[in-house]
Amino acid sequence: MSWLQVLRRNGRSGWACRSGSSAVEFALVAPVVLMLFAGITAFGLCLGAAHNLRQIAAEAARASIAGVTDTERATLAQTMVTRSLSSGAMFRPDSIKVTVGPDPNDATLYTVTVTLDANTLGINVFSKLIPMLPTILRSSISVRKGGL
């Protein structure tokens, strides 16, 4: 008795045996879903890091208003960044660089720039699965000299 005759005798006709179809569907869909989740996770981490970096830069700019010289402003900004990082930020203190200097477009402004090496976030484990976002994140805040 052939395989087709057994299927017809059991009440099924044609190619009714579907015992492995769910495994095949899972094998086709799982890599796409895993890459989608990896992309969402990596993008969420980078978006959170950019937002956190922007907040740290804004706090450093606000703190540097009290400085009179560029050196004093840089010291105040660095102190505020160190204080912000010690209160539970998602960055290591050695991964952030702070620079304070005059704005190249306007002499009445100075700019506080906070730069992060995003490789320290640990999202480079996804680099083989998805296209990666920039490895250097930078946030600049301009403040008017004198604070007004």
UniProtKB/TrEMBL annotation:
Source organism, top-level taxon: Bacteria
Classification via InterPro entries: TadE-like_dom
Keywords: Membrane, Transmembrane, Transmembrane helix
Residue ranges constituting the TadE-like domain according to the UniProt record: 20-62
Protein name: Flp pilus assembly protein TadG
Pfam families: TadE
Residue stretches spanning the membrane: 28-50
